[in-house]
Amino acid sequence: MRYNTSFGILFVLIVACAPASADSVLITGANSGIGLEFARQYAADGWDVIATHRRRSTPDSLAELQQQYDNVRVERIDVTDPAMIAAAARNLEDVPIDILINNAGIVGTFDDERQHFGSFDFELFEQFMAVNTAGPLRVSQAFFPNVAASKQKKIVAISSAAGSFAMVRRGIEENIPIVKRYWYNMSKAALNMSFMQLAASTAKDGVSVAVYHPGLVRVERTASYELPEAFKSMALDVDVAVAALRERFAELDAASSGGFYAFDGSAMPW
Question: What is the pTM of this model?
Answer without folding.
Answer: 0.88
